[in-house]
């Protein structure tokens, strides 16, 4: 490159700042693009310098991480009971969504779900008993993410719950997730009434054996990567819309259920349950993302996110480069459409591990693929496209399999780069359900939430600190 | 017939796009057959079936890799075709960005994606952010123009060293004007294309020189601003020298013009050494500096911005410098006659200059100094002549309205005339004022309708003081959106004495005062 090269080129200008200059250039017929510029968010100049100075190393680490993410191949291979299946699971251990949290700091829905789980496990008879036990110190709590698992909303997993086993065929690691209970008054939204516990029991005693047999009868398991790719072409973003994914799963699994289940009534009920729950596939898209991203952990210097998760109180993230270290900040209350009778005042702050789908480049990042749910983001398909376009700004790469038809089949924005989040002051955009802030009530709405900046600032500083060592 | 294959790791295109490329490739001369597919097992089978499979290359490839096989007449054809395929892929990738959206990028990187081939980043965000934005642009391989000021000198040095190593330009910080390949950037004029290349560490100085060259019937190849600090010791003239070298190597540049306030001694030496290596004629002005250093290095020194421009234009047109200097001397004599004619008609005794261009304000003070001595100013040549209160004129006073005390919370006087217009009528009301001296800078960035501002102000001033002389020069061209000739005619009609340059206007004003003072 030399200055003289410029003299022979057509001048094309990127204008950052005064739009009058853009207008003048456009008036002269000069190709010009205006940067919709915002000042960067407040990280220390020292850490900015460290990150800038290590740009080449970070880019290399990120390229490696991205390659692992793109190569990941999540396959549903089986099911198991949490106690026997999830590494480190114990009878008195309850897993929850998001970063670590104590009973004292738990939000209403998380507490409600813990209460429900203790009743379901037979460890308490009444909500009062359960609450006493929960706060007694006899029950241990840990994030799903620290046990290779993910859970939507409260994300509560207790010892007897059946879980899907999703394997990353390329790298051999696995991820686990409970069965989706449906919408409304359900455990993951903090409800713990008799009907909730009864449904959990039914899932364990009827659904689980039938599904397990069916899944295990399918040679090589169910290719979730392929299913997600198709679902995106069919109007899902596999977080707030899972209708296509659920249908695809149903199509794949129905013959296996019929073939492997002797009890026709049970088979019909299981298939009816899947058919009646548009979000059934969410509990597969989540572990698919989890096992794909987990393979990209621990790459020194990588600034890509491998976890975004909320526990209803805190929002936490993890980077590939800093592996297991959590960076947290208060979770925000989502912008949502509320069910009749509820308002934002009823809403609990953002909750759930389902932001793993966004971390994976789906959900809010792929909202342009899901025109049916654009009412959550402003009402027009253009709004949805703009959200996705903005997410490309903070993604290190694009997916080679997951595509967005409305963007000429461009790959989904993949590999959230904390550097871009900081430099551009754009935080990830997450599709989400909204839980009532009180235990026992359940879901009150659905919508979108912008991730808070604080965890990203901490992660940026954390990565810089690690690089300067 | 040769069969050649390639694997592009991690390159992904959808199958339809690849089929379109394949189809086009098969029609290219010398190509017998081709396959361009993603490396899935299924696609590998298809390639094998077409007898295009190359096991040693393709066996290792997987779903995420792009496979390319060409059966062609010769290796040369393969190579030529590969170049064409790369171009097709590039076009495809660009097409991906046309989502039919109203999306505007949030970052330089996003903008570069949206505008492939972007080569200049024009930055006018607040100074404390500008440095980082500039560095990001440089990292992306873009040249940078920083309109922003208040960038630390350490950042400026870092940016310019980095740019120098990468062969990129950093114009600024605080660079108001540049014209690259005829494109006016920020506050800049529409110029005739020609073979005069300018390097300038002064914004309005550059505008004055380049517009006069253009108005003289010559033209501009490039006008590169460096920002005023480039020629200070701390920066060491990094970009000034780089720009000189670029113009020296530029076949479209015949005459090189240098414009700056006096550089630091160490930088001046570097510039002089550089001039000695240049085979093209070099014309320069270090406003207020000693012309001997330029002359000793083999350059031609201009005494004013106008003279510098006129000499450059003459050299460009093949005229002799001596002839040119004689013409300027004749013009000076003419101005003196004009002054003699005007002086007796004056009331009062003071000169009041109201300037929007900083370098023009300096030049006027320099020209007047030789005729009537130092002049009071908010930006004086001699610190002893600093106005106690920038808002109150004392004796002969020349004010730079672009200085900070006037621009905080207010647009630059080139855009917002309200303050200058108020001062015009204030000065007219002062019975001791004989002459109002004004500059008017046209071009992009400046006020689009200066007549609407100045004509009422001039009329008002003339109503208050019919004998008041309003002397004005225009920095601009007929190509500028305001049109110089039209503005000149309008202001003349409003009673102003229009001079062809700031130097000429200053000489006329200085001469009149000298006559009034009996010197």
At the first level of CATH, what is the class of the largest domain in chain B?
Answer: Alpha Beta
Structural class, from secondary structure content of chain A? Answer: alpha+beta
User: What is the name of the CATH architecture of the largest domain in chain A?
Assistant: Alpha-Beta Complex
Report the total helices of chain B.
Answer: 19
Mean pLDDT over the residues of chain B: 91
Q: Structurally, how many domains make up the residues of chain A? A: 3
Strand content of chain A: 15-25%
Taking Cα atoms only, what radius of gyration of chain A do you get, to the nearest Å? 23 Å
User: Could you describe the largest sheet of chain B, including whether it forms a barrel?
Assistant: 6 strands, parallel
Low-confidence stretches of chain A: none
Gross morphology of chain B is elongated
* Structure summary, number of beta strands of chain B: 19
- Oligomeric state of the chains? heterodimer
User: Class by helix and strand content of chain B?
Assistant: alpha/beta
Query: How are the strands of the biggest sheet of chain A laid out side by side?
Result: 7-6-3-8
Distance between the termini of chain B: 93 Å
CATH architect. name of the largest domain in chain B: 3-Layer(aba) Sandwich
Description:
- The complex is a heterodimer of chains A (469) and B (519).
- With 469 residues, chain A is α+β, with helices and mostly antiparallel strands.
- Chain A folds into three domains: 3-37, no CATH class; 47-66 and 297-468, v583 fold; 75-287, Enterococcus faecalis V583 fold.
- Helices cover 38% and strands 20% of the residues of chain A.
- Chain A is built from 16 helices and 17 strands.
- In chain A, helix 2 (19-27) links the parallel strand 1 (13-16) and strand 2.
- Chain A is globular.
- Chain A starts with a helix and ends with a helix.
- With 519 residues, chain B is of the alpha/beta class.
- Chain B has three domains: 2-96, Alpha-Beta Plaits, CATH 3.30.70; 119-326, Succinyl-CoA synthetase domains (Rossmann fold); 332-516, Rossmann fold (3-Layer(aba) Sandwich).
- Chain B has 19 helices and 19 strands.
- In chain B, helix 8 (203-215) links the parallel strand 9 (193-200) and strand 10 (220-225).
- In chain B, helix 14 runs parallel beside helix 19.
- Chain B is elongated.
- The interface between A and B is large, with 61 and 69 residues.
């Amino acid at each position: 490159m030399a200055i003289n090269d410029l003299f022979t080129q057509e001048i094309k200008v990127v204008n950052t700042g005064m739009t009058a200059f853009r207008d003048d250039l456009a008036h002269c017929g000069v190709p010009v693009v205006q940067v919709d510029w915002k000042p960067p968010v407040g990280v220390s100049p020292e850490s900015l310098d460290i990150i800038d100075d290590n740009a080449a190393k970070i880019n290399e680490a990120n390229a490696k991480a991205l390659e692992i993410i793109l190569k990941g191949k999540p396959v549903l291979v089986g099911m198991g009971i949490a106690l026997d299946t999830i590494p480190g699971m114990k009878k008195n251990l309850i897993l929850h969504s998001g970063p670590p949290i104590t009973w004292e700091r738990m939000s209403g829905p998380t507490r409600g779900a813990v209460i429900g789980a203790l009743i379901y496990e037979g460890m308490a008879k009444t909500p009062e008993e359960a609450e006493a036990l929960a706060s007694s110190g006899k029950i241990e709590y840990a994030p799903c993410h620290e046990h290779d698992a993910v859970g939507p909303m409260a994300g509560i997993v207790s010892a007897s719950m059946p879980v899907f086993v999703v394997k990353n065929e390329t790298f051999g690691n696995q991820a686990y997730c409970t069965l989706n209970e449906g919408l409304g008054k359900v455990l993951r939204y903090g409800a713990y009434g008799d009907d909730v516990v009864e449904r959990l029991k039914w899932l364990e005693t009827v659904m689980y054996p039938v599904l397990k047999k069916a899944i295990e009868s399918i040679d090589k398991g169910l290719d979730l990567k392929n299913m997600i790719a198709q679902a995106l072409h069919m109007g899902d973003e596999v977080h707030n819309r899972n209708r296509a994914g659920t249908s695809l799963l149903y199509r794949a699994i129905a013959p296996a259920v019929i073939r492997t289940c002797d009890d026709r009534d049970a088979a019909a009920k299981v298939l009816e349950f899947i058919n009646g729950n548009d979000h059934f596939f969410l509990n597969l898209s989540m572990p698919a993302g989890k096992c794909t991203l987990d393979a990209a952990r621990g790459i020194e210097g990588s600034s890509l996110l491998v976890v975004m998760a909320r526990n209803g109180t805190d929002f936490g993230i993890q980077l590939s480069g800093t592996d297991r270290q959590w960076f947290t900040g208060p979770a925000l209350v989502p912008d949502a459409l509320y069910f009749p009778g509820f308002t934002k005042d009823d809403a609990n702050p953002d909750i759930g591990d389902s932001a793993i789908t966004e971390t994976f480049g789906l959900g809010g990042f792929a909202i342009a693929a899901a025109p049916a749910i654009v009412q959550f983001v402003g009402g027009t398909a253009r709004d949805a496209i703009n959200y996705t376009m903005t997410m490309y700004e903070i993604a290190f790469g694009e997916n080679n399999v997951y595509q967005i038809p409305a963007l000429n089949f461009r790959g989904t924005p993949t590999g959230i780069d904390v550097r871009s989040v900081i430099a551009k002051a754009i935080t990830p955009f997450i599709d989400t359900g909204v839980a009532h802030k009180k235990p026992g009530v359940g879901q009150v709405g659905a919508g979108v939430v912008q991730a808070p900046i604080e965890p990203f600032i901490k992660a940026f500083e954390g990565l810089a600190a690690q690089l300067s060592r | 017939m040769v069969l050649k294959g390639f694997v592009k790791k991690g390159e992904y295109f959808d199958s339809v796009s690849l089929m379109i490329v394949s189809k086009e490739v098969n029609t290219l001369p010398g190509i017998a057959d081709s396959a361009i597919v993603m490396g899935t097992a299924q696609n590998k089978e298809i390639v094998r079936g077409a007898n295009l499979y190359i096991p040693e290359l393709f066996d290792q490839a997987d779903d995420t890799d792009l496979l390319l096989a060409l059966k062609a007449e010769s290796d040369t054809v393969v190579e030529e075709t590969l170049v064409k395929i790369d171009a097709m892929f590039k076009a495809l990738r660009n097409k991906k960005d046309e989502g039919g959206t109203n999306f505007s990028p949030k970052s330089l990187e996003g903008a570069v994606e949206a505008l492939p081939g972007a080569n200049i980043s024009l930055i006018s965000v607040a100074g404390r952010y500008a440095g980082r934005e500039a560095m990001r642009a440089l990292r992306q391989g873009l040249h940078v123009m920083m309109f922003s000021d208040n960038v630390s000198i350490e950042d400026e040095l870092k940016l310019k060293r980095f740019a120098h190593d990468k062969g990129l330009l950093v114009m600024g910080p605080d660079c108001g004007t540049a014209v690259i390949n005829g494109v006016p950037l920020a506050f800049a004029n529409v110029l005739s294309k020609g073979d005069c290349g300018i390097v300038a560490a002064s914004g309005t100085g550059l505008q004055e020189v380049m517009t006069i060259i253009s108005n003289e019937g010559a033209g501009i190849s490039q006008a590169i601003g460096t920002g005023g600090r480039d020629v200070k010791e701390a920066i060491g003239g990094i970009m000034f020298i780089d720009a000189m070298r670029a113009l020296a190597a530029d076949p479209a540049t015949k005459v090189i013009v240098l414009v700056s306030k006096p550089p630091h001694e160490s930088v001046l030496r570097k510039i002089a050494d550089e001039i000695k290596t240049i085979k093209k004629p070099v014309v320069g002005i270090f406003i207020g500096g000693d012309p001997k250093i330029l002359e000793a290095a083999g350059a031609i020194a201009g005494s004013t911005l106008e003279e510098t421009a006129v000499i450059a234009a003459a050299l460009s047109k093949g005229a002799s410098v001596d002839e040119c200097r004689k013409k300027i001397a004749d013009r000076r004599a003419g101005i003196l006659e004009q002054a003699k004619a005007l002086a007796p008609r004056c009331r009062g005794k003071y000169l009041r200059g109201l300037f929007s261009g900083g370098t023009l304000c300096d030049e006027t003070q320099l020209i007047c100094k030789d005729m009537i001595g130092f002049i009071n100013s908010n930006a004086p040549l001699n610190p002893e002549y600093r106005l106690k209160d920038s808002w109150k004129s004392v004796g002969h006073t020349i004010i730079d309205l672009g200085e900070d005390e006037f621009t905080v919370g207010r647009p630059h006087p080139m855009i917002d005339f309200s303050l200058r217009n108020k001062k015009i009528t204030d000065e007219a009301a002062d019975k001791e004022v004989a002459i109002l001296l004004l500059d008017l800078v046209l071009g992009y960035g400046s006020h689009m309708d200066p007549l609407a501002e100045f004509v009422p102000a001039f009329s008002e001033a003339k109503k208050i003081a019919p004998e008041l002389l309003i002397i004005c020069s225009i920095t601009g061209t007929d190509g500028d959106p305001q049109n110089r000739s039209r503005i000149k005619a309008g202001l003349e009609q409003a009673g102003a004495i229009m001079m062809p340059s700031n130097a000429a206007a200053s000489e006329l004003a200085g001469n009149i005062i000298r006559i009034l003072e009996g010197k």
